[in-house]
Design brief:
By secondary structure, the protein is of the alpha+beta class. It has 3 helices and 4 strands; from the N terminus they run βαβαββα.
C-alpha cells in the first residue's frame, strides 16, 4: 500500500473535529500506511494551512496535500478516498 498523509486542522471545542477523531480512532488500525497528523488552527502551522487551503470551517481534512473536506466529513467518502490513494 502507498504511504498516505492524513492531516486534520482542528479548532478548540469543535464538535465535528471530535466526531472525526472518534471515527478515525475506530478505523486507524485498518490503515497502517496512513500517517495521521492533527494541527490546531490556533498554531502558526495551522494558520498556514488555513491560508493555503482557504479553510473556513473545522475540521479541515487534507489527504496527501489535497483538501478533502471542511466543516464535517462523510465517513464512506473518506474511506473511499483512503482506498483510492492507498491503492487498495
Amino acid at each position: 500500500m502507498t504511504k498516505v498523509l492524513l492531516e486534520e486542522l482542528s479548532a478548540p471545542g469543535c464538535v465535528h473535529c471530535a466526531e472525526f477523531e472518534r471515527f478515525w480512532s475506530t478505523i486507524q488500525k485498518d490503515w497502517p500506511n496512513v500517517e495521521y497528523k492533527k494541527m490546531m488552527v490556533t498554531t502558526p502551522e495551522g494558520q498556514e494551512l488555513v491560508q493555503k487551503y482557504m479553510i473556513f470551517a473545522s475540521p479541515g481534512i487534507i489527504i496527501n496535500g489535497e483538501l478533502f473536506s471542511t466543516g464535517g466529513f462523510n465517513k464512506e467518502k473518506l474511506v473511499a478516498k483512503l482506498k483510492e490513494v492507498s491503492g487498495k
